[in-house]
C-alpha cells in the first residue's frame, strides 16, 4: 500500500520518506506545509533521457513553461540546453529572468496572443511563433513591420487525430479551438509567405496532454511531414518540425518505465521524420516535471460522518486542483510508515466546496491528526495552477539537488496576497 514505483524520486529510507535524499519530515519542520517539493535530479534525468534518445537528430527540447513555471526549475532546464514553449508575455518574462541565454530557443504558442506579447517576443528574438489563426497572422505581420523585425512562424495545424486523454486536455480534433485545419494550412502558408515581416519556417502540431500511446504522435507528425514536403515544393524554406508536447506519465500504481517509453516515442518520431532533414522541436511539460514533484501536507483533523471517514489536510484544491478539475488520481503516501491498521477515507482540503477533495474512499495507513502525507506526481500543473481561492496563500516550494534542499519560493504572506487591492 505504501510502496512507490521506481520512476519517482520519493523513496522510503527505512520508514521515513525522502526526496532524492532529503528527509520530508525535516523539510516540513523547516519550511512548513503545504509545501511543494521537487527533485532537481529527477528533472535533469528526464531532460537528459529525451536529449539522449533524440541525439541522432537535430533537435531542441522546448520545455512547456505552464507545467511548472518556477524560475529555479526553468534556470536548471535552461542550463541543460533546453529552450522553452511559452503561452504568454508573462511566461516570456520568466524566461528573460531565469534563462536569458535561452531566449533564442523560445517558441510562442497559444490561441490568443496580444500585440504587446508579440512585441516583447519580437524584441527578444525568439525562435518561432506558433500561429493559430489567420487573424493572428495578420496582427503579427503588422507588429513585425512596425518594429522592423521578421517573425519566423510555424502554423499550428490541427491534424484531426484523436488522442485518448481527458477531454479538457485533448486538443487535436477539428472540434477543438486549437490550430488551423491541416487541409487549409497550405493555402494559409501561401498567404503568409507573401506577407511582409513574416517568414514561414516551420510546421507545428500539439494534439493534447497526458497521452500515453505513441501512435497518435506518430500519426500527427506523419501528416505534418507530408505538409512540409508540399510547402518545400512550393518553394518555402521549412526547417522546423514542432511535434508539440503531451507525452504522458502513469499517475497510479501501474508499472512505468520512462526510459523505455521515451525510447519508443523517439523511435517512432525518428522513423516518421527520416530523411526529411528538419530541426525537430519538442515541447514536453508534464513528462519532465510531474513525477519529480510532490505536495507535502499535514493532517489537520480527522472525522467520521455516519459511515464516512474524512481526513482533512492543510493543503486544498487551491494548492492542487487536478483532482477537482480533471478527476485526476494522485497516489497519497505517509511520510512516516507505521505498523498501523489500514483505513479507507476521503482525503479533503479545508476549502468550502464539495469538489475540494484529493481522493475518495482511498485506502491508506491509518492517518492521525498531525501526520504528514505526500501527494505524489504533483510537479506538473500543481503550483502553476494554484490560486488564492478562499483567500489562502499558495504553498512554498523547495528544490532538492544531490540531497540538499533549498527554498525556491517563499511562502506568501497575507500582505502579498492583498497587495494589489484597493478599497
Ligand atoms: C500544454 C502544452 C504543452 C505541454 O503539454 P504537456 O502535456 O505538459 O507535455 C506543449 N505545447 C503546447 C502548445 C501546450 O499547450
Automatic annotation (TrEMBL):
GO terms for molecular function: diaminopimelate decarboxylase activity; pyridoxal phosphate binding. The active site is at 352 (proton donor). One of its GO terms (biological process) is lysine biosynthetic process via diaminopimelate. It comes from the Bacteria. Specifically catalyzes the decarboxylation of meso-diaminopimelate (meso-DAP) to L-lysine. Residues 36-379 form the Orn/DAP/Arg decarboxylase 2 C-terminal domain. Residues 42-290 form the Orn/DAP/Arg decarboxylase 2 N-terminal domain. Belongs to the Orn/Lys/Arg decarboxylase class-II family. LysA subfamily. The modification N6-(pyridoxal phosphate)lysine is found at residue 66. Pathway: Amino-acid biosynthesis; L-lysine biosynthesis via DAP pathway; L-lysine from DL-2,6-diaminopimelate: step 1/1. InterPro entries: Ala_racemase/Decarboxylase_C (IPR009006), DAP_deCOOHase_LysA (IPR002986), De-COase2_C (IPR022643), De-COase2_N (IPR022644), De-COase2_pyr-phos_BS (IPR022653), Orn/DAP/Arg_de-COase (IPR000183), PLP-binding_barrel (IPR029066). Its EC number is 4.1.1.20. The keyword NADP does not apply. It catalyses: meso-2,6-diaminopimelate + H(+) = L-lysine + CO2. CDD domains: PLPDE_III_DapDC. Substrate binds at residues 286, 322, 326, 353, 381. Gene3D superfamilies: Alanine racemase (3.20.20.10), Lyase, Ornithine Decarboxylase, Chain A, domain 1 (2.40.37.10). Homodimer. Its cofactor is pyridoxal 5'-phosphate. This is Diaminopimelate decarboxylase. Pyridoxal 5'-phosphate binds at residues 246, 283-286, 381. It is an enzyme of class 4 (lyase).
Amino acid at each position: 500500500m505504501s510502496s512507490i514505483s521506481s520512476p519517482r524520486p520519493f523513496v522510503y529510507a527505512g520508514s521515513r520518506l525522502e526526496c532524492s535524499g532529503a528527509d520530508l519530515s525535516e523539510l516540513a519542520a523547516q519550511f512548513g506545509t503545504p509545501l511543494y517539493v521537487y527533485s532537481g535530479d529527477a528533472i535533469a534525468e528526464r531532460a537528459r533521457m529525451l536529449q539522449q534518445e533524440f541525439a541522432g537528430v537535430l533537435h531542441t527540447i522546448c520545455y512547456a513553461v505552464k507545467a511548472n513555471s518556477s524560475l529555479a526549475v526553468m534556470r536548471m532546464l535552461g542550463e541543460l540546453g533546453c529552450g522553452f514553449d511559452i503561452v504568454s508575455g508573462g511566461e516570456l518574462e520568466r524566461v528573460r529572468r531565469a534563462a536569458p541565454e535561452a531566449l533564442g530557443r523560445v517558441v510562442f504558442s497559444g490561441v490568443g496572443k496580444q500585440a504587446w506579447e508579440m512585441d516583447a517576443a519580437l524584441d527578444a528574438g525568439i525562435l518561432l511563433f506558433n500561429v493559430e489563426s489567420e487573424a493572428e497572422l495578420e496582427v503579427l505581420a503588422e507588429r513585425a513591420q512596425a518594429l522592423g523585425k521578421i517573425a519566423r512562424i510555424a502554423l499550428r495545424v490541427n491534424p484531426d487525430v484523436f488522442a485518448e486523454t481527458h477531454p479538457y486536455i485533448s486538443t487535436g480534433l477539428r472540434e477543438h479551438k486549437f490550430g488551423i485545419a491541416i487541409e487549409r494550412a497550405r493555402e494559409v502558408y501561401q498567404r503568409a509567405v507573401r506577407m511582409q515581416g513574416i517568414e514561414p519556417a516551420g510546421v507545428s502540431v500539439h494534439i493534447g496532454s497526458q497521452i500515453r500511446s505513441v501512435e497518435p504522435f506518430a500519426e500527427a507528425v506523419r501528416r505534418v511531414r507530408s505538409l512540409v514536403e508540399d510547402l518545400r515544393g512550393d518553394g518555402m524554406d521549412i526547417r522546423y518540425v514542432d511535434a508539440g508536447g503531451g507525452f504522458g506519465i502513469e499517475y497510479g500504481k501501474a508499472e512505468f518505465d520512462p526510459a523505455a517509453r521515451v525510447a519508443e516515442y523517439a523511435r517512432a518520431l525518428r522513423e516518421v521524420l527520416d530523411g526529411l532533414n528538419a530541426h525537430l522541436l519538442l515541447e514536453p511539460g508534464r513528462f519532465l516535471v510531474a513525477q519529480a514533484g510532490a505536495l507535502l501536507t499535514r493532517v489537520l483533523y480527522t472525522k467520521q460522518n455516519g459511515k464516512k471517514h474524512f481526513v482533512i489536510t492543510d493543503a486544498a484544491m487551491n494548492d492542487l486542483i487536478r483532482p477537482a478539475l480533471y478527476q485526476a488520481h494522485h497516489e497519497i503516501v505517509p511520510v512516516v510508515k507505521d505498523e498501523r491498521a489500514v483505513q479507507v477515507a476521503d482525503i479533503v482540503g479545508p476549502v468550502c466546496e464539495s469538489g475540494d477533495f484529493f481522493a475518495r474512499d482511498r485506502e491508506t495507513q491509518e492517518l492521525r491528526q498531525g501526520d504528514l502525507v505526500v501527494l505524489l506526481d504533483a510537479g506538473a500543473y500543481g503550483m502553476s495552477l494554484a490560486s488564492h481561492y478562499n483567500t489562502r496563500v499558495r504553498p512554498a516550494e523547495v528544490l532538492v539537488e544531490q540531497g540538499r534542499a533549498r527554498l525556491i519560493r517563499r511562502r506568501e504572506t497575507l500582505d502579498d496576497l492583498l497587495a494589489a487591492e484597493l478599497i
